[in-house]
Amino acid sequence: MRCFIKSSNNYWAVVPAAGVGKRMGSDCPKQYLSLQEKPIIQHTLERLAATQVKGIVVALSATDPYWEELELDLPVPLMRVEGGAERFHSVLNGLHHLQKHADPDDWVLVHDAARPCVRVEDIQHLMQSLADHPVGGLLALPVRDTMKRSNTDNIITETVSREQLWHALTPQMFRLQALTEALEDVLAQQKMVTDDAQAIELTGQQPVLVASHADNIKVTHPQDLQLAALFLTQQAQHES
Length: 240
Fold this sequence. Notes:
Elements: E1 11-17, E2 34-35, E3 38-39, H1 40-49, E4 56-60, E5 78-82, H2 87-98, E6 107-110, H3 120-129, E7 136-142, E8 147-150, E9 156-160, E10 166-175, H4 176-188, H5 196-201, E11 208-211, H6 222-239
Parallel strand pairs: 1-4, 1-6, 4-5, 7-11
Antiparallel strand pairs: 2-3, 6-10, 7-10, 8-9
Helix pairs in contact: 2-4
């Protein structure tokens, strides 16, 4: 069942999925690994499609042999574009494709393909919280542990205060034109950003952090698969 929020805004999603997931050490990219009898990316796309998004753009490797094997039945249009060398290249390709379908002020939610446990309610909360915000923002999680900074030999150099520190998660939600221009500036200046919010920050704007549940994990290492399966099971039990 799709969930809707009352808003005159249009929402779209971009999912960068061109990575190979080297840290996972698997034979195929991690987004295609099986998680409760579905590929990880299928869980992810189904979560996004259960919201008010009008369409989803997926950025894939040009040599991806797995995508066509997916059996997807989503209630929104699904568009494919070629990804790039880095995450932000893939996102920018997705945004350029969206310009053919969306208005400059439409909201775009960029979500990692390997975050299959994101709760629909958290995505909806992000959309509702920032519906009228001039900049946008992202799901995030306040840091709970003591933070240490080390040198290259893993020797502690300082203890960092965790006050007002957050883990940046996804989706990250910004206006189509604003995010496109921000990432184009990053590319033109030959800079590197690790998430979309950083590109927006470099323009002088200040995104908002919206608290997420802690089960919105990114599957990166082999042990993350078991944790993701546990979270999905717990979520299903809660829903029932």
